[in-house]
Amino acid sequence: MMQRPPPEDFSLKETRPHLGGGKLTGDKLTSTYDLVEQMQYLYVRVVKAKELPGKDLTGSCDPYVEVKLGNYKGTTRHFEKKSNPEWNQVFAFSKDRIQASFLEATVKDKDVVKDDLIGRVVFDLNEVPKRVPPDSPLAPQWYRLEGTKGEKVRGELMLAVWFGTQADEAFPEAWHSDAATVSGTDALANIRSKVYLSPKLWYLRVNVIEAQDLIPSDKGRYPEVYVKAIVGNQALRTRVSQSRTINPMWNEDLMFVAAEPFEEPLILSVEDRVAPNKDEVLGRCAIPLQHLDKRFDHRPVNSRWFNLEKHIMVDGEKKEIKFASRIHMRICLEGGYHVLDESTHYSSDLRPTAKQLWKPNIGVLELGILNATGLMPMKNKDGRGTTDAYCVAKYGQKWIRTRTIIDSFTPRWNEQYTWEVFDPCTVITVGVFDNCHLHGGGEKNGGGGKDSRIGKVRIRLSTLETDRVYTHSYPLLVLHPNGVKKMGEIHLAVRFTCSSLLNMMYMYSVPLLPKMHYIHPLTVSQLDNLRHQATQIVSMRLTRAEPPLRKEVVEYMLDVGSHMWSMRRSKANFFRIMGVLSGLIAVGKWFEQICNWKNPITTVLIHLLFIILVVYPELILPTVFLYLFLIGVWYYRWRPRHPPHMDTRLSHADSAHPDELDEEFDTFPTSRPSDIVRMRYDRLRSIAGRIQTVVGDLATQGERLQSLLSWRDPRATALFVLFCLIAAVVLYVTPFQVVALLVGIYVLRHPRFRYRLPSVPLNFFRRLPARTDCML
């Protein structure tokens, strides 16, 4: 009998890495990179050369420098016919991989057949100085070139050579020996670490009020006029005006997302629907966004009249005619809203657009991206699996991208980044990707494909203790059509430092979003549409950066498509609701046991507590809050000590049926065969049928409550009205404490005095009429 393979380890692991080189002074680490492990590098800055001799027939030279250390070799760009070239390039060699004891910097002359040697400088690594930031950079020096036999030759080379760590400011732009297989300027740019900023996004509100003196081509019919507005790729239109005249009115808001710098104007066209599929343009106008009013609160901006222009064809040429048609609008850029470009559940920034409305920061978030282990091969190169991994982290408007570690399943980045924190109830997202843009060419050899996702981690700041360094290894989980897969683990160090505890506590009392979201709320459909447009703009702008942060990376980080239907996610959300209600269900079962005297001692104690609370009602609320306080203190012993991470069981990812996953990964609209679509449609109908029944039952109970006083069933309403009169008289005559005591003792009565049949009030309620008999 075959044994089942052991389940994969999807858990979070606490680690104890050697952070910052371990140099402790008090509670702080002396290194500026105190959340990562120190990595030692040999840095070589090649600045320039002078008085280089000519080597070819023309007496000129095309110089470049080759920096060689053992088997590793880096070269500068070459200059044509220049004897005094300037390169100013930095080379970094990992100290862990150094096997040589000498560094050689050779100046060569680029030639068609074989490059000629001009001269070289040799360094003994034992004599190379060590630099520790914040020391100033090492000043480069002139070195006389030597020949192969040690003789002095003509020409000098300016160099600086030192040992340093990844905290050195030369590190981000240096050529790395780890990336020696990558060639070409574009490919080298693609592997460097970079910091990106999301474009500043504004909501653009276009309030279309009315138009005047429109001139339709057919004056014998009532015009059906609407306004179409376009900003970049976004197009919206108003409804057709109810006043079918040449002076139509709308008073309708159209909302867009615009990004600084404002490149595209707002283009408005007033159109008349002359036939079902035919619209006639009655006038146009283009409004630059740079000159629009910016609104920071709920006070309305001034409205303006804009002239409409129309083009007509005369002898095959467009001619512009200006006429008296005008459109009345109120247009402004909304600075009081936060433009939502992320899923609201994982927002990393909640500030309004306008900087004038920003509150001071409450702390600092520091993230150390240490390494990854056990990564899966993401592509094939030279007949073997390989992975070129890099990380992207997003918090607020700041995105960071680490350098790409070439061909490694255990990459070590050891890069540290910092963000200002303005709200503790925010989330930082860290994603790991495989770089597919290094070796040029087509998709097969890794040049033209999309960067593959390896996995991501979300950390909510409010779950972190302040000033504590969290070092954990997070599982990188990705859902594939054939199930959930662990792609490896990423090792992170996180520290949230609070500058003012009082300010942070105050943040818990203020609204989550800026006040304009509550004073002038946007509809759900508007927010969905605007979020889609915002993510498209952010994705497009970051793709145009150099090096680009690619569309597939940005969309994965921003959870684009998370709103699509998924059977797995629906089940997970249903069981989440059941998990929330399980506490109430448990209390209900406990109370039922009390009523059934399962444990007589507990039931007697509950009777005594109940009588005390009835006699002294002023103790009810203090007792409830004291009880909650004691529960909170009791649970403090078992408080979570680790940040939350992706939970496959909660997500129902480990138990999802393959067909459900195939449906989740299907395109929209579907690309599956008709028989599969029919089967899924029938399954959805059966689920919807059950939901429909539950919703109908809820409606029935609500309608029965309404029918108590509606005289729909005259006898039932008469009985209820008579009962209300008697209850009013009895409660007026009898003290409330006596009534409460009698009701409580009746509810808690011994099972000997109970019947198995439903109670009289329940029987009465179930007999009340509902509107189900009016349903078709």
UniProtKB/TrEMBL annotation:
Residues 1-23 are annotated as: Disordered. Keywords: Calcium, Membrane, Metal-binding, Repeat, Transmembrane, Transmembrane helix. Residues 1-17 have a biased composition (Basic and acidic residues). Residues 23-143, 182-306, 346-474 form the C2 domain. The keyword Cell inner membrane does not apply. PROSITE patterns: C2. Belongs to the MCTP family. This is C2 domain-containing protein. GO terms for molecular function: metal ion binding. The chain crosses the membrane at residues 574-591, 603-636, 718-748. GO terms for cellular component: membrane. Its main location: membrane. It is found in: Membrane. It is a multi-pass membrane protein.
